[in-house]
Amino acid sequence: MNKEKTIEQWITNPTLRVIYLTVAQILRVALLGLTFEGIGEQLLRFLETTGGIAKLLVETLWGLIRPPYRFRLFMQQAVVVGWQTIPLIAATLGFLGMIVMLELRFQLTRVLHNISLIPGIAGLMFFREFGATVVMAMLAAKVGAGFTAEIGGMKTTDQIDALELMGVSPVHYLVVPRFAACMVMGMALSVIGLFAAFMMGFLSSFTIFNYQTYLGTMNAYVGWPDFINLILKALALGWVVPITSCYYGLTAGGGARGVGEATTKSVVTSILIIIILDFTISAIADKLVSAVLSFT
């Protein structure tokens, strides 16, 4: 108690003091429900899920190079992942582009009293973060949920067992086409989303910048390395949605309720992995760039 009072007195900012007290109360309530049994159960569940996702990823990568090659199934999933998702991606990234332009205009006017840098900064954000990360998060919400529900329904109605009885690998038949479609269409949707953000960002600021100024300023800040970064990040994040959603679908049980719970877990886990990987990739990329610049 004395320690808490000391920390509270050490924090002089009223806002920070309120935040500290709120977090302390939340942690105190949370600790009341924690037991060694509960902690161990959650840890085992985490390790089981992590190992299952990693195992499914390895099996899927092996299935990519192993015949038969089901091109028809790939095209069917490519239509679902790509063509049917374009309106969602275009709308999401378009409005996000407008939000970024409006917010940058407000902040730069307030802090720097200079709005000429808006297109360049917005372009870097579009290429380095929003182009791939937001697209994959939207795929997790739309496509990933559908994958889990579809495969989970097949699991609970014994269709997965029927495939195995016929000598067909469920991973090769169900997961591999979805994985390949997400990897290819993820890159295409990232470029489409980038274009939507670019155009809608211009429309939200056409009263300030003409097209030549908007494009010229962005071109001064953004180059081919940023476009390559977009494609590589889309590739690095592209496996998350199909593997995670298919894993939860293949392990679903308990009827319709179990499928619903698996779908929820699939979306939450996919978005969490995407955010963690995005941070990891960005941190590693920044370290590599700094090392190269210091070496040269």
What would a concise description of this structure say?
The chain has 296 residues and is mainly α.
Largest sheet: none
The number of E-state strands comes to 0
Would you list the SSEs in sequence order as H and E? HHHHHHHHHHHH
Question: Quaternary state, please?
Answer: single chain
Quote the average pLDDT: 84
Shape: globular
What features would you describe in this structure?
This protein has twelve helices and no strands. With about 300 residues, the protein is mainly alpha-helical. It has one domain.
Highlighted features:
296 residues, single chain, mainly alpha, 12 helices, 85% helix, 0% strand
SSE blueprint:
Layout lengths: L1 H9 L3 H19 L3 H29 L6 H11 L4 H26 L6 H39 L2 H7 L4 H34 L7 H11 L2 H15 L1 H11 L4 H41 L1
